[in-house]
Design brief:
This protein is mostly beta strands and 324 residues long. The protein is built from 1 helix and 26 strands. Helix content is 11%, strand content 41%. Strand 2 and strand 3 (73-78) form a beta hairpin.
Length: 324
C-alpha cells in the first residue's frame, strides 16, 4: 500500500513538473512574439516588417513602380523588366507574367496595378496607352475597353485603383483624372492642365475613401488635391499649415489611406513617406535615403490592404518594403 502511494505521488510530481515546463515555454514564446511583433502606436507610424526582393538573377525586381494586394497575393509592376511579379504575403515568389512588346499580355512601361472583387488584375501601361486585364494566374483576358469607342479619353494611364467596382485612373500626359465603371462607362472627368485649384500637372497616383472622396497626387504641382465623389474640389494638402503655402512635397507619388484616416504620401525625391491627418496636418514621417531597413531610394508606389499592412515600392533599391 505504501509503495502504491509513493508511485501515485511520484506521478503527480512528474505531471506538475511537466505542466510547469510547458507553462514556462509558452510564456517565454509569448514574450518573444511580443518582442518581434510590436503593437502599432495609435497615433504614430507603422512598424517595419520585412523586405521583398524577388528571386536571384533573372527573378530580381528592377524598378518596381506599383504594388497591390489582390486576393491573397501581391502583384508588383516590375517595370524595367516589362512584367508583373507575384508574391505571397511573406514575400515568397509565386509566378510572373508579361514581357516586352505592344501585343496582348505584353508591356512597355507597366505602371499602375490593381484588382477587382473577381480577382482580375488590371495593369496600366504608360507607354502603350493601354490597360490590360489578367486573371489571378496572369493569363491575359482582354484590354479594358471604353464604352464610348468614338470618344476615347485614355492616352497615358499612370496611377490606377479599383475601389467599390469603380476604376480611378490618372492620365499623366493629359493631366486629368478619370473614373470609370468596370464596363468601361466614363463616370467622371476631373481637371485639366494647369496650376489652379482643380488643375493638374502630371498627376501620378489616385485613391478614394469610404465616402467616395477622391485623392489625387498632383505631382508637378507638388500637392495632393481632394475632391468629393462628384468631382468638386474640396481642399489641397502640401505640408504647409493651410495647404496654400510653400510645399514640403517634392515629386510626390504613391498615396493611400489607412483605417485610422491617415493619408500616406510617398515624397519621392526626399526618400520619405509622409502621413497627414484628415485636416491636412502632417502627423508623422518615416524613411530617409539609404539601402538599410526602413530607408528608401526613390520610393514610388504605395498600397494599404484591409488589415493596414503597408507596401511601398522602393525603385532604386529594387524591392518592396512592408510595414504594419
Amino acid at each position: 500500500m505504501k509503495k502504491k502511494t509513493v508511485y501515485i505521488w511520484m506521478g503527480i510530481i512528474v505531471s506538475l513538473t511537466a505542466a510547469a515546463f510547458v507553462a514556462i515555454y509558452f510564456l517565454n514564446l509569448g514574450n518573444e512574439v511580443a518582442k518581434i511583433t510590436p503593437r502599432m502606436d495609435p497615433n504614430g507610424p507603422p512598424a517595419f516588417s520585412h523586405l521583398i526582393y524577388g528571386d536571384f538573377d533573372k527573378g530580381a525586381l528592377d524598378k518596381p513602380m506599383d504594388v497591390s494586394k489582390v486576393g491573397e497575393f501581391l502583384y508588383i509592376s516590375d517595370t524595367k523588366n516589362k512584367r508583373v511579379q507575384v508574391f505571397d504575403a511573406g514575400g515568397t515568389p509565386i509566378f510572373q507574367f508579361g514581357k516586352e512588346g505592344d501585343g496582348p499580355g505584353e508591356f512597355m512601361f507597366p505602371y499602375g496595378i490593381s484588382g477587382d472583387k473577381k480577382g482580375r488584375v488590371y495593369v496600366a501601361d504608360l507607354f502603350n496607352g493601354t490597360i490590360s486585364i489578367f486573371d489571378s494566374k496572369g493569363k491575359f483576358i482582354d484590354y479594358f475597353k471604353e464604352a464610348d469607342g468614338k470618344n476615347k479619353v485614355i492616352k497615358a494611364p499612370g496611377g490606377l485603383r479599383i475601389i467599390d467596382e469603380k476604376m480611378y485612373l490618372t492620365d499623366i500626359e493629359k493631366s486629368q483624372v478619370y473614373v470609370f465603371d468596370l464596363n468601361g462607362k466614363l463616370l467622371l472627368t476631373i481637371g485639366k492642365p494647369g496650376q489652379a485649384e482643380g488643375d493638374f500637372r502630371a498627376p501620378n497616383s489616385v485613391t478614394a475613401d469610404d465616402e467616395g472622396n477622391i485623392y489625387v497626387v498632383d505631382t508637378g504641382n507638388q500637392r495632393i488635391q481632394i475632391f468629393d465623389k462628384a468631382g468638386k474640389f474640396r481642399k489641397q494638402i502640401n505640408g504647409s499649415d493651410d495647404g496654400k503655402g510653400k510645399s514640403t512635397l517634392v515629386n510626390p507619388r504613391g498615396i493611400d489611406i489607412d483605417s485610422r484616416g491617415f493619408i500616406y504620401v510617398v515624397n519621392n525625391l526626399t526618400h520619405y513617406v509622409y502621413a497627414f491627418d484628415q485636416e491636412g496636418k502632417k502627423a508623422f514621417q518615416f524613411g530617409g535615403i539609404g539601402d538599410q531597413n526602413e530607408q528608401f531610394y526613390l520610393p514610388n508606389g504605395l498600397f494599404i490592404d484591409d488589415t493596414d499592412h503597408l507596401y511601398i515600392t522602393d525603385t532604386l533599391n529594387q524591392r518592396v518594403a512592408v510595414y504594419y
